[in-house]
Amino acid sequence: MAIRKDAIGFGFIPLESQHHFLVIIPRGQKDNVIVYERFQWQENEEVQKVDFINDRPKVEISKYKWKQIEDDLRVEFNERLKKDGIPVGRWRIGQVPIQRLLGKEMVLLMWAIEDCDPSVIPTAIKNWKGLSPEERWWLFTMTNAATGYIGDKRGWRKAVRYALTENPVGETKQMSLFDLAIKRKIDD
Protein backbone atom coordinates (compact mmCIF):
# COMPACT_ATOMS: atom_id res chain seq x y z
CA MET A 1 0.00 0.00 0.00
CA ALA A 2 1.38 3.40 -0.97
CA ILE A 3 1.75 6.04 1.72
CA ARG A 4 -0.44 9.10 1.19
CA LYS A 5 1.58 12.30 1.19
CA ASP A 6 -1.31 14.77 1.15
CA ALA A 7 -2.53 14.19 4.72
CA ILE A 8 -1.98 16.84 7.38
CA GLY A 9 -2.42 16.71 11.13
CA PHE A 10 -4.08 13.42 11.99
CA GLY A 11 -5.31 11.99 8.69
CA PHE A 12 -6.96 15.11 7.32
CA ILE A 13 -6.85 15.16 3.50
CA PRO A 14 -8.44 18.40 2.26
CA LEU A 15 -8.75 17.11 -1.31
CA GLU A 16 -11.04 14.28 -0.16
CA SER A 17 -13.25 16.25 2.22
CA GLN A 18 -13.22 19.72 3.69
CA HIS A 19 -15.02 18.45 6.82
CA HIS A 20 -12.59 18.20 9.72
CA PHE A 21 -11.97 19.12 13.34
CA LEU A 22 -9.41 21.73 14.31
CA VAL A 23 -7.70 21.41 17.67
CA ILE A 24 -6.19 24.63 18.99
CA ILE A 25 -3.48 23.90 21.55
CA PRO A 26 -2.26 27.01 23.37
CA ARG A 27 1.30 27.63 24.48
CA GLY A 28 0.34 28.73 28.01
CA GLN A 29 -0.32 26.09 30.66
CA LYS A 30 -3.26 28.04 32.08
CA ASP A 31 -4.99 28.43 28.71
CA ASN A 32 -7.60 25.95 27.44
CA VAL A 33 -7.54 23.59 24.48
CA ILE A 34 -10.51 24.17 22.18
CA VAL A 35 -11.87 22.08 19.32
CA TYR A 36 -13.90 23.36 16.35
CA GLU A 37 -15.83 21.31 13.82
CA ARG A 38 -15.23 22.90 10.43
CA PHE A 39 -16.57 22.38 6.91
CA GLN A 40 -14.04 24.39 4.93
CA TRP A 41 -10.27 24.44 4.65
CA GLN A 42 -8.47 27.61 3.68
CA GLU A 43 -5.86 26.50 1.15
CA ASN A 44 -2.45 28.17 1.25
CA GLU A 45 -3.09 29.52 4.76
CA GLU A 46 -0.42 28.63 7.29
CA VAL A 47 -2.83 29.43 10.13
CA GLN A 48 -6.53 28.78 9.65
CA LYS A 49 -8.87 31.65 10.43
CA VAL A 50 -11.73 30.50 12.63
CA ASP A 51 -15.06 31.62 11.16
CA PHE A 52 -17.23 32.27 14.20
CA ILE A 53 -20.40 32.00 12.07
CA ASN A 54 -19.75 28.67 10.32
CA ASP A 55 -17.15 26.89 12.47
CA ARG A 56 -18.74 25.10 15.40
CA PRO A 57 -16.96 25.16 18.77
CA LYS A 58 -17.48 21.70 20.27
CA VAL A 59 -15.50 21.47 23.49
CA GLU A 60 -12.98 23.30 25.63
CA ILE A 61 -10.84 21.66 28.33
CA SER A 62 -7.93 22.73 30.48
CA LYS A 63 -4.41 22.12 29.24
CA TYR A 64 -3.93 19.93 32.33
CA LYS A 65 -6.74 17.57 31.23
CA TRP A 66 -5.51 17.67 27.63
CA LYS A 67 -2.06 16.50 28.73
CA GLN A 68 -3.69 13.47 30.35
CA ILE A 69 -5.38 12.30 27.13
CA GLU A 70 -3.11 13.47 24.31
CA ASP A 71 -0.76 10.46 24.30
CA ASP A 72 -3.60 7.92 24.25
CA LEU A 73 -5.28 9.81 21.40
CA ARG A 74 -2.02 9.99 19.44
CA VAL A 75 -1.28 6.27 19.84
CA GLU A 76 -4.85 5.20 18.99
CA PHE A 77 -5.10 7.42 15.92
CA ASN A 78 -1.60 6.70 14.60
CA GLU A 79 -2.10 2.93 14.77
CA ARG A 80 -5.16 3.27 12.56
CA LEU A 81 -3.55 5.78 10.21
CA LYS A 82 -0.58 3.44 9.69
CA LYS A 83 -2.96 0.59 8.78
CA ASP A 84 -4.56 2.85 6.16
CA GLY A 85 -1.21 3.96 4.71
CA ILE A 86 -1.64 7.53 5.94
CA PRO A 87 1.26 9.39 7.59
CA VAL A 88 1.05 9.55 11.38
CA GLY A 89 0.29 12.78 13.19
CA ARG A 90 1.61 14.54 16.24
CA TRP A 91 0.28 17.14 18.64
CA ARG A 92 1.95 20.53 18.56
CA ILE A 93 1.31 23.99 19.91
CA GLY A 94 -1.04 25.86 17.59
CA GLN A 95 -3.55 24.30 15.22
CA VAL A 96 -3.81 20.59 14.45
CA PRO A 97 -6.43 19.40 11.91
CA ILE A 98 -8.07 16.02 12.52
CA GLN A 99 -9.88 13.81 9.99
CA ARG A 100 -13.62 14.02 10.70
CA LEU A 101 -14.19 10.50 12.08
CA LEU A 102 -11.12 10.64 14.31
CA GLY A 103 -12.28 14.09 15.41
CA LYS A 104 -15.66 12.70 16.46
CA GLU A 105 -13.94 10.11 18.61
CA MET A 106 -11.64 12.69 20.17
CA VAL A 107 -14.49 15.08 20.97
CA LEU A 108 -16.46 12.25 22.58
CA LEU A 109 -13.60 11.61 25.01
CA MET A 110 -13.19 15.32 25.66
CA TRP A 111 -16.92 15.69 26.37
CA ALA A 112 -16.60 12.88 28.92
CA ILE A 113 -13.83 14.63 30.84
CA GLU A 114 -14.70 18.32 30.41
CA ASP A 115 -16.44 18.58 33.78
CA CYS A 116 -15.09 15.54 35.61
CA ASP A 117 -12.63 15.29 38.44
CA PRO A 118 -9.17 14.71 36.88
CA SER A 119 -8.72 11.57 39.00
CA VAL A 120 -11.27 9.68 36.86
CA ILE A 121 -9.66 10.52 33.51
CA PRO A 122 -7.78 7.16 33.39
CA THR A 123 -11.15 5.40 33.76
CA ALA A 124 -12.61 7.50 30.94
CA ILE A 125 -9.67 6.63 28.68
CA LYS A 126 -9.98 2.92 29.48
CA ASN A 127 -13.73 2.93 28.78
CA TRP A 128 -13.24 5.00 25.59
CA LYS A 129 -10.65 2.49 24.36
CA GLY A 130 -13.12 -0.31 25.13
CA LEU A 131 -15.53 1.08 22.53
CA SER A 132 -15.14 0.32 18.83
CA PRO A 133 -14.73 3.29 16.48
CA GLU A 134 -18.29 2.72 15.25
CA GLU A 135 -19.64 2.86 18.79
CA ARG A 136 -17.75 6.11 19.39
CA TRP A 137 -19.14 7.59 16.17
CA TRP A 138 -22.69 6.62 17.17
CA LEU A 139 -22.30 8.12 20.65
CA PHE A 140 -20.86 11.30 19.16
CA THR A 141 -23.74 11.56 16.67
CA MET A 142 -26.43 11.09 19.31
CA THR A 143 -24.76 13.50 21.73
CA ASN A 144 -23.99 16.05 19.03
CA ALA A 145 -27.60 16.09 17.82
CA ALA A 146 -28.91 17.03 21.27
CA THR A 147 -26.06 18.85 23.00
CA GLY A 148 -23.25 19.43 20.51
CA TYR A 149 -22.23 23.01 21.19
CA ILE A 150 -19.51 24.12 23.55
CA GLY A 151 -21.86 25.28 26.33
CA ASP A 152 -24.33 22.36 26.15
CA LYS A 153 -23.46 20.40 29.26
CA ARG A 154 -26.71 18.60 29.96
CA GLY A 155 -28.60 15.53 28.74
CA TRP A 156 -26.47 13.36 26.46
CA ARG A 157 -23.30 15.21 27.50
CA LYS A 158 -23.88 14.23 31.12
CA ALA A 159 -24.73 10.69 30.07
CA VAL A 160 -21.44 10.38 28.16
CA ARG A 161 -19.53 11.67 31.18
CA TYR A 162 -21.20 9.15 33.50
CA ALA A 163 -20.85 6.29 31.04
CA LEU A 164 -17.13 6.82 30.51
CA THR A 165 -15.98 8.04 33.92
CA GLU A 166 -18.18 6.10 36.35
CA ASN A 167 -18.48 2.74 34.66
CA PRO A 168 -15.03 1.16 34.90
CA VAL A 169 -14.23 -1.72 32.61
CA GLY A 170 -12.00 -4.60 33.60
CA GLU A 171 -8.45 -5.03 32.39
CA THR A 172 -9.59 -7.31 29.56
CA LYS A 173 -11.66 -6.11 26.64
CA GLN A 174 -15.37 -6.71 27.16
CA MET A 175 -17.03 -9.23 24.87
CA SER A 176 -19.91 -8.06 22.74
CA LEU A 177 -23.14 -10.03 22.96
CA PHE A 178 -22.41 -11.40 19.49
CA ASP A 179 -18.94 -12.64 20.54
CA LEU A 180 -20.41 -14.18 23.69
CA ALA A 181 -23.10 -16.01 21.69
CA ILE A 182 -20.49 -17.38 19.26
CA LYS A 183 -18.27 -18.52 22.15
CA ARG A 184 -21.23 -20.31 23.80
CA LYS A 185 -22.11 -21.99 20.48
CA ILE A 186 -18.51 -23.23 20.06
CA ASP A 187 -18.29 -24.44 23.67
CA ASP A 188 -21.59 -26.41 23.37
Tally of separate helices: 6
Fraction in beta strands: 5-15%
State the helicity in percent bands: 40-55%
* Main sheet properties: 4 strands, antiparallel
Number of domains: 1
Strand order of the largest sheet: 3-2-1-4
Outline: globular
Number of strands: 4
Q: Uncertain spans, ≥5 residues at pLDDT below 50?
A: none
Class inferred from helices and paired strands: alpha+beta
Order of helices and strands: EEEHEHHHHH
How confident is the prediction overall: mean pLDDT? Answer: 90
Q: Rg to the nearest angstrom?
A: 17 Å
Distance between the termini: 41 Å
Keywords:
188 residues, alpha+beta, four-stranded antiparallel β-sheet, 6 helices, 4 strands
Describe this protein's structure.
The chain has 188 residues and is of the alpha+beta class. Helices cover 43% and strands 14% of the residues. The protein has one domain (20-170). The chain has helices at 63-83, 100-113, 121-129, 133-147, 156-165, 177-187; strands at 20-25, 32-38, 56-62, 94-99. It has a four-stranded antiparallel sheet. The longest helix is centred in the middle third of the chain and has 21 residues, at 63-83. The radius of gyration is 17 Å and the shape is globular. The termini are far apart.
